[in-house]
Amino acid sequence: MNITQQHDLPLGHLQACQVCGCSDLQLVIDLGHHAPCDSLLRENQLHEIERTYPLRCMRCPECGLVQIDYVVAPEELFYQDYPYRSGITSTLARNLQSIAQVMIESEHVKLPKGSFVVDLGSNDGTLLQGFKSAGMRVLGVEPTKIAAIANANGIPSLKTFFGTTVGRQIREQYGQAQVVTAANMFAHVAKLSDLIRGVAELLCDGGIFLTESHYLLDLLKTVQYDSIYHEHLKYYSLKPFVRMLDAYGFSVIDAERIPNYGGSIRVFAKKAKGLLPSLRMKELLAEEEYEDLYGPRPFEEFRNRVAKSKTDLQNLLVDLRRNGKTVVGVGCPGRCATLLNYCRVDRDLMPYIAEQPSCLKVGMFLPGAHIPVVDEKIMFESNPDYAVILSWHYWEPIVRNLRAKGITSKFIVPLPEVHVLED
Ligand SMILES: [Zn+2]
After folding, report:
1. pLDDT, tens digit, for every residue of 318-341?
2. What are phi and psi of 237, to 5 degrees?
3. Under 8 Å between Cβ of 136 and 100
4. 319 and 252 in one domain?
5. From the CA of 288, how far away is ligand 1's center (Å)?
6. I want to staple 254 with a disulfide (CB 3.0 to 4.6 A). Which of 247, 260, 278, 291 is the partner?
7. pLDDT in tens, 33-69
């Protein structure tokens, strides 16, 4: 099998590992059938058949890559009205904008003013705002209508999927880039070979490809099975990542753990061959070995903890309902679709999910469970007995914010272990 066939996945059931081609993939967890998590439904769609796909997470015993074994068409996942906006979660927005400073100060990069920076999966342009403020030339690439929001906010953005052809076109029209970033999108890509070749076309020699992806070690340690959904094809650890990029003439020179999305990994790859990794990257590789990340043990533990957290959440919500308490959801991240559908939480147990009025999901319904997403003012008016924090990885600022707005409900944090917060 050549490298393109191996790294560019066909749609449907995955037959072999995307990094190394091994066909003996081992089951980590089977979450059942789910609709794509950000495919929220309008009211009239509740009368139609809903399309669901298998959601199983697999581990490659050969290279260590963890991946789901069903590829949904990207046009279906990242459809034109895709409702996710990175700029409305303030913690995340700050983290994304700080990438510019990291790149300017990094000993590996030392990015001078006027450099050309391209962000892939640029969403509403939040990440590039940081680079623009620091005096860089910027361009976003975003396949959904959200590109228009970025353009309106002064971040020039092309509305398209990124690949080899688009990479070449950008270079011809705008010149070579010193930096290409891909925050929380690299793990979403089925046609990886096409994408990495595009990055190589676009970057100057010695240019930096910076990615941020959800980190496998955090996923396992904090039981984040809710971050398993069809948009996330892969759950990276460092070793398979290095192997992947090496095949395209990149050296991974540095990596660090960052808090985004409940634990992510920021990886610096240079378009140059044979460079050595930094000290902290070597330490992280050693930690992966120490945690036995390439053996079966942490995955068995993970599976057991998922099963326990599922029944604990179900028991708590059923008990509260029996006792006549009102329970609602707060925040509607993509991951809550996996959590609520896997735990069979429906409108009886959670009559609605409250969201900020600026969220594009308000007025729509969660796929599967059909729980309505409503303007949070409904929650402020009714002050329910309990509220489940569905963006639980950001629970602290969320609780502070809701308390400041006068909510006196008790808060439930569903993961890593289900617990009710003490006041
Ligand atoms: Zn593999």
Report:
1. 999 999 999 999 999 999 999 999
2. -115, 175
3. yes
4. no
5. 16
6. 278
7. 999 998 999 999 999 999 999 999 999 999 999 999 9
